[in-house]
Amino acid sequence: xxxxxxxxxxxxxWDCHNCGICCRGASVILNDTDLKRLRDQHWxxxxxxxxxxxxxxxxxxxxxxxxxxxxxGTCVFQDADKLCRIHREFGYVAKPHVCRMAPLQMIPLxxxxxxxLRRYCPSAAADRxxxxxxxxxxxxxLALESGAVPGPVPxxxxxxxxxxxxxxxxxxxxxxxxxxxDEQYPLVRRLVHGLEFCRLLERCRLRKxxxxxxxxxxxxxxxxxxxEAKPLFHERVPPSRRSGRPFxxxxxxxxxxxxxxxxxxxxxxxxxMLHALWIYARGKGRVPCFRLDFPPASFTELERPLGALTExxxxxxxxxxxxxxxxxxxxxxxxxRWSITEGFSALALGLxxxxxxxxxxxxxxxxxxxxVIKVVMMLDRGETYAPLVGTLHRWRTRWLLDDxxxxxxxxxxxx
Length: 415
Ligand code: SF4
Ligand code: SF4
Description:
Layout: E1 5-7, E2 13-14, E3 29-30, H1 32-41, E4 55-57, E5 65-67, H2 85-90, H3 97-101, E6 104-108, E7 113-117, H4 122-125, E8 130-131, H5 133-145, H6 166-180, H7 187-203, H8 211-234, H9 241-255, H10 267-282, H11 311-327, H12 333-336, H13 340-362, H14 369-382, H15 386-389, H16 391-402, H17 405-413
Parallel strand pairs: 1-7
Antiparallel strand pairs: 2-8, 3-5, 4-5, 6-7
Helix pairs in contact: 6-7, 6-8, 6-11, 7-8, 7-13, 7-17, 9-10, 9-13, 11-13, 11-14, 13-14, 13-16, 13-17
The structure holds iron/sulfur cluster (2 copies).
Residues 16-22, 102-103, 121, 123 line the site of one iron/sulfur cluster (SF4).
């Protein structure tokens, strides 16, 4: 049974502006219809593709196929002017299913599916274009045609040890939404309230707490989270050695997803990355820039205050976090295998990484909207990047939450 599609209760806008960014580094997995369509297009007879591999196996032992990449990570079908060759030769409907659906995303819940935007697309990150409701009809048609609309899914865990029915799960998620949408506080404060709430909830023994008792507990935890957050903003403490190292290594994983990062799958790049891991773990001296055109900086310089960012500059980040919270995307992380507290912790950690990256990307000049859009794209890409959704990252995020470090990192980098 497929569920009805529904838009978020807060607006989102988008139109494709043909920048071609989504065709770089994307893994375009092909379904049977895509494979048949590609075969019927006879690319092997085309002079530009005669000796080119256009398909590769997705994974070492996988039976599925994806589109091949060039050395720089761009799709084999992307032309020099960034347009899609399949689209150019055969029209929009001839493109693989994934490409026609992007950057819209479905998030199945109990009785409906949220349709929202992936913000790796700069137009989506900037909310540039028509309201999403104008795309919904076409999207629904595409989704139904390909049988891609999911059915009901089980709720994610509340905490690491506790799973509850959807009703109670949504009650907890609703508390986190309220923190995130509370406009009387700046973004960092809203996220820290959510983090403190998650930390306290993880400490509770929830086994016998159901129904009205759970509601009562959530009200108490909500008030306690606001109180716990206050001292963190009175005196902002720099990351300790214990938290600084994992934080820098996480930031390094994210940097590889920055839209200005030009990767090449070569042995030289792999060796440079290993060397960078060592330098980031030490956290001393110059910060390696790889192929990023960022101003030279030392690790110490990246701890300096960034200064207050205007409402306009912060907007793409605010929209990213608000929409992630309302859509429950953070909770449905990895198909719902992460708990709500783990998903929210990973989401909130993204703000510290984003602000650290802005220090690095902008050097002494103040960040502009375009810089913030790039870090939003980076955060969004992280949501499906194996090192940032795998067991190691889950373990690191848990440890930083339990040790009260996530809120401290957020307060520190939001100076
Ligand atoms: S990244 Fe967005 S705007 Fe750019 S081509 Fe892809 S969908 Fe279009
Ligand atoms: S097939 Fe076309 S739209 Fe899809 S990733 Fe490749 S170039 Fe982009």
